[in-house]
Amino acid sequence: MAVSYGFHRPPAVGTVAPQEVQLSEFREPAAREIAGMMRSSLSRRRILQAAGITGVAAVAAACGASGDSGSAAASTAASAADLSDSEKTVNWSNWPGYMDSDEKTGARPSLDAFVKQSGINVTYNEDINDNNEFYAKVRTQLEQGQPIDRDIVVLTDWMAALWIESGYAQKLDKAAMPNASANVIDKLQNVAFDPGREYSLPWQSGFGLFGWNKSKLKELIGTDTLATVDQLFNPKLKGRVTVLSEMRDTMGIIMAWQGNDPSNFTEDQFMQAIDALRTQIDNGQIRSVEGNSYMSDMESGNVVAVIGWSGDVIQLGSDFGIAMPESGGTLWTDNMLIPPLVSHKKNAEKLMNYYYDPEVAAKISAFVQYISPVKGAQEAMQKVDPALVDNQWIFPTAETLNKSYVFMTLTPEQDLKYQREFQKAIGN
Amino acid sequence: MAPVVPVASVTTKVAQASKQRSRIAYLLLIPGLGWLAIFFVIPLVTLFMTSLQAESASKPGTYVPGIQFSNYTDALAEYWPQFVRSFVYAGLATAFALVIAYPLAYFIAFKAGNWRSLMLVLVVAPAFASFLLRTYAWKTILADDGPVTSGLNALHLLPDGRILNTGIAVVAGLTYNFLPFMVLPLYASLDKIDYRLIEAGNDLYGSPQQVFRKVTWPLSMPGVVAGTLLTFIPAAGDFINAELLGSTKDKMIGNVIQTNFIEFRDYPTASALSFALMAVILVMVLSYIRRSGTEDLV
Question: A200, A194 in Cβ contact below 8 A?
Fold first, then answer.
């Protein structure tokens, strides 16, 4: 049985069929898609955000101003008749370039293998470009209790938290998912928004960190390594620096630089970081604040040093450096959820479980170059690509992990307030 | 005896036929009117109502129907710089587009001869590629190490030493992207000019400048007005160029609307800004058309 890849002919790797580009999706996502189009290199995760994973963050959330912000209050989403046995299909919405694929044919080997093995057809849509944008697209249906016609969606921590809290995620039948029950790495097992992973399963994680153009950096500041935020804000790099339009990554790194804890901060501390960001924007140090378009700016040499995402920077190749800022970077996870009223829940669970097979997980991580959340994937990587077994950006060491912060879980009110401050600082 | 045709019955028939014809005309209008009602009037009313919503007291972050005109004043107080910038950038882009497009359209209409169709196709051809892709291509064209920037830098013409991520790049992008919308109406209107009028001007000892000023330009006014409107209106609301080619200091009103809608989910503010944008454009367009005296030409 052949896999069907959504509504259109499957695009080549790293590209998006032009007819899929809609006006409503322009802005940053557009830049991201185009960045994908321009580079025919390996594909990658587009937009990433960090949010609460740690217990500390849970406390912070529970202490939040709003009474209904307790994540424990989550109730499972409404379920519908499961047609999994009669309809051997599953609809999956994921981010572009987040799946292994063959550059020439556009085939997706790991998905094809699943179809063969299970007899379940997978409709794989790369239609999530931005957490907020995707939420805006399906929000009305969710609020009115209508199905959104997707059996699996992949959302970043804080958005996943919002969905679980609002009752837009169904409880997973872990008994039917032996791999998934056993193989979530310890660090991600008990997250604040979903203790014990009852509603969500990590797809991939990644870091917010430094990336730079080695030769240009040496030319400008005399060294080809970038270690501190002070170096990033060296006046010699004026106008050659970009930071992420993702509040949680940019602000997390600035707060850590200022000696504050991005996992547990006060409003004053956040505003202090906003001031620093404003200063660097106003004095022209920061050229622009970008989603994924920083990749092409790095390649063309317009931009020398960035706050970017680990998988992206690795894929730029060996002319570019990557490092965690000495004062600390950020760590985020994207999570698979089953929305309300899906009609193929069992199939969806089978598919999720399949990707928790260590060997399959190793194949995914070898391709997308983000952190695998699957126990045993590192051992399995020996067979897939031995060169990547010790890659600390895919299988981070304790040291690397310790240098990364998970952004504090915000109440919806805090999130809005901070987003407004951040967007105002970046000109919106 | 020949049958007498009652005169009255003939007139009734004629009247009936014309009534029927006008009924058909109305029937034919229905699809268009229906389309407008569903896809223009209803969204417009919804947009206006949304722009007056107030934040729910019990559930912050959600909005309930209301009549809160302060949405407008608040939004404009906060975002007036982006508002003004949008009109400045759009105005500059329109002016540049006119300066570039007029000679081009003139050439195509009067001098291109057999090449006319080919040139028109070439004007439109870029539109076959995605708007987004074309804008993205400008990032490459204007790259810091690219020929354009290096050339201008050698002449010390760039204050920041770069074009990309400055207002210049945004205006250049807008000009480029909306140029066909300027060329085509200009061409259509120049092409309609009876060339004998221009010849007559020359025969009557008008200098080329005089002939242009007194004959060609006035006769091409409908094209100028249509072209400037078709360029200015979408350019004022555009956000792609500012997003891809600008910096944080070059954001336009479209970017702000997008952020309010998607990031903040603040639909009333986004709607108020959209509505205000439409209102301002409408007022500007009306006074512009009135001043240029082309109400019945456009």
Answer: yes
Two tokens, residue A97: 């370039």
- Give the side-chain half-sphere CA count within 13 A for B30: 6
Interface check for B238 against chain A (CB to CB < 8 A): the answer is no
Task: Indicate the domain borders of chain A.
Answer: 18-205+334-392, 207-330+416-425
Residues of A numbered 366-405 whose beta carbons fall under 8 angstroms of chain B's beta carbons: which are they? none
pLDDT confidence of B3, banded at 50, 70, 90?
A: low
Whole-number pLDDT of residue A43? 37
Q: Which CATH superfamily is domain A18-205+334-392 in?
A: Periplasmic binding protein-like II (3.40.190.10)
Question: In a 3-state reduction of DSSP, which class is residue A330?
Answer: strand
Our CA-based measurement puts residue B157 at a distance from the nearest CA of chain A, in whole angstroms, of 17
Please give the pLDDT value at position B10.
Answer: 64
Higher pLDDT, B17 or A407: A407
The 10 Å Cβ neighbour count of residue A188 is: 22
pTM above 0.90, yes or no: no
The complex scores an ipTM of 0.84
The listed CATH number (1.10.10.200, 3.40.50.2300, 1.20.120.640, 1.10.3720.10) that belongs to domain B69-292? 1.10.3720.10
The helix (run of H) or strand (run of E) holding residue B261 is none
* From A178-182, A223-227, A299-303, B54-58, the region with the lowest mean pLDDT: B54-58
- Burial of A364-402, coded b for 16+ CB within 10 Å and e otherwise, reads bbbbbbbbbbbbbbbebbeebeeebbebebbbbeeebee
Average model confidence (pLDDT) across chain A: 84
Q: Domain A207-330+416-425: state its class.
A: alpha beta
Both tokens of A180, joined, read: 């998934």
Whether B132 sits inside 8 A of A136 (CB atoms) is no
Q: Which of residues 288-317 of A touch B (CB under 8 A)?
A: 288-289, 293, 296-297, 300-302
- A411, two tokens: 């109440």
Residue B237 pLDDT class (50, 70, 90 cuts): very high
Chain A residue with minimum CA distance to B79: A428
Residue A248 contacts residue A49 (beta carbons within 8 Å)? yes
Residue-range domain boundaries for chain B: 7-51, 69-292
The tokens describing A418, both together, are: 């901070």
pLDDT tens, position by position, B106-161: 999 999 989 999 999 999 999 899 998 999 899 989 999 888 998 898 888 888 88
Amino acid at B217: W
Which of B219, B215, B199, B182 has the alpha carbon at shortest distance from B102? B182
**Which residue in chain A has the smallest CA separation from B160?**
A239
Q: Is B239 on the interface with A (CB under 8 A)?
A: yes
For the segment A143-189, what is each residue's pLDDT rounded down to a tens digit?
999 999 999 999 999 999 999 999 999 999 999 999 999 999 988 99
User: Which residues does chain A have within 8 Å of residue B134's beta carbon, measured at their own beta carbons?
Assistant: none
Q: Where are the beta strands (DSSP E) in A117-216?
A: 121-125, 152-156, 200-213
Question: What would the 3-class secondary structure string for A75-139 be?
Answer: CCCCCCCCCCCCCCEEEEECCCCCCCCCCCCCCCHHHHHHHHHHCCEEEEECCCCCHHHHHHHHH
Q: What is the DSSP letter of A194?
A: B
CA distance to A16, A19, A163, B260, B265, per residue, from A132 (Å): 20, 22, 12, 11, 8
CA distance A56 to A64: 13
DSSP code for A68? G
